[in-house]
Amino acid sequence: MKITSTNPxxxxxxxxxxxxxxxxxxxxxxxxxxxxxxxWASLSQPERNAAVESFIEACKPRAEEIAIAxxxxxxxxxxxxxxxxxxxxxxxxxxxxxAEKALAPKVVFENDTEVHTETREPLGVxxxxxxxxxxxxxIPWQAGQSLLAGNAVLYKPSEEIIVFARxxxxxxxxxxxxxxxxxxxxxxxxxxxxxxxxxxxxxLFTGSTRTGQRITELAAKTSTRVLTEMGGSSAGIIFExxxxxxxxxxxxxxxxxxxxxxxxxxxxxxxxESKLEEVLAALRQVNATKKVGDALDEATNxxxxxxxxxxxxLKAQVQDALDNGAKIxxxxxxxxxxxxxxxxxxxxxxxxxxxxxxxxxxxGPVLPVVTFKTDEEAIQLAxxxxxxxxxxxxxxxxxxxxxxxxxxxxxxxxxxxxLFYSPHTPFGGYKKSGNSRxxxxxxFHEVTQIKMISEEK
Length: 457
Ligand code: NAD
Description:
Elements: E1 2-7, E2 13-19, H1 23-42, H2 45-59, H3 63-74, H4 78-102, E3 106-110, E4 114-122, E5 125-129, H5 138-148, E6 152-156, H6 162-174, E7 182-184, H7 189-195, E8 202-206, H8 209-220, E9 225-229, E10 234-238, H9 244-256, E11 266-272, H10 276-287, H11 308-323, E12 327-330, E13 346-349, H12 356-359, E14 366-372, H13 375-382, E15 387-388, E16 390-394, H14 398-407, E17 412-415, E18 430-431, H15 440-446, E19 448-456
Parallel strand pairs: 5-6, 5-8, 6-7, 8-9, 10-11, 10-16, 11-14, 13-14, 16-17
Antiparallel strand pairs: 1-2, 3-4, 4-19, 12-13, 15-18
The structure holds nicotinamide-adenine-dinucleotide.
């Protein structure tokens, strides 16, 4: 079976056609991964770091080609695609630095007669199922800590970035990673569904809550561990004491950057009623400085959505809001003069809590804004979602920030312009946003298991 890749910036013109990995090739890759994993696990940390470094070295001379593939296939503005590659290398390097300490044995109990040592061993063979919204960063985020901890990885990128995925397959082959330790699987959901039913030790899933639930159901049959990073509908709360000029770029970027296709994007804005006019005017001002356009155009800030199906879904969500009385502050249309999956950055007011833009995850450049009067009301509105990935709180009062942060049902909370992105900072959600953490020591602990070794003195 072949998957066709198209360019959402240029009226869906054909980019390429890729043959998917067959069921037989997947089964054989799992068997081979199982066979080589113990030798990989028995290497020293510096040896595993060096092998992963060789993948980075293989990517470096082809960085521009990787960036162009991301820009063409998913609509990532080219300057951001380049920056993503550099950031990915930083993540790998930080994980390398922290691995030894994170995985070191530790004595947890000792008396006159015995000593108990907690050690960490890799899970074994791990399947990673990944989305398209951060194509290159997903490699360190999903596979980096697993590989460095001594696991073998079968890594399936989304079908939306299949040409990019084949390029990564080539770069893995060009690296000095031991054969079969990191296998890139090419395919769509059907291929993913076959892959997650193979005899593996864990599945790391990043993607929509619907798919995560399906994979969890399938994995339950074999009691395979599933670690999920899923959808989000994060709130941003702007209190009456917020310094709007100081924070407005963060508010704008966390919603409209990456064409609104962030799992942890600021998807619902709650504004104290006294600040509404100031906030809307400031958002309009920032928006006037942004260019929507072809991802390969160096001047573009906001590219198209990843695909036509994503544009159609977004338009249906906006139409539902307009049919039920929402008002457009700016945007609301497909921009004139561009052909592809484009949608203008859009701000909506007069939102009711039955609207799809409030209840569902909106994966595109549309921001519903509601007002509140009290802190309690703001917290209740922020928590009014099945998701719990993150929330953003804008206030100059640190006491208030801390009080509110503790009442938000989310795995991550950010204050003003202090976000939560670092390889040292565990990333993950509450509720239907997932059950695991990547990054930091916790990220290493998720992909390893505890072996307690007690010893007589
Ligand atoms: P998706 O769920 O449609 O696809 C994700 C991956 O799952 C793809 O590789 C796809 O081929 C595969 N897949 C689909 N059906 C499958 C099945 N039945 N069995 C096995 N694999 C299957 O999600 P998407 O559209 O690629 O990504 C967008 C979603 O991902 C959004 O909901 C976003 O919030 C979420 N996301 C979450 C995080 C996070 O860290 N929490 C990060 C990025 C994206």
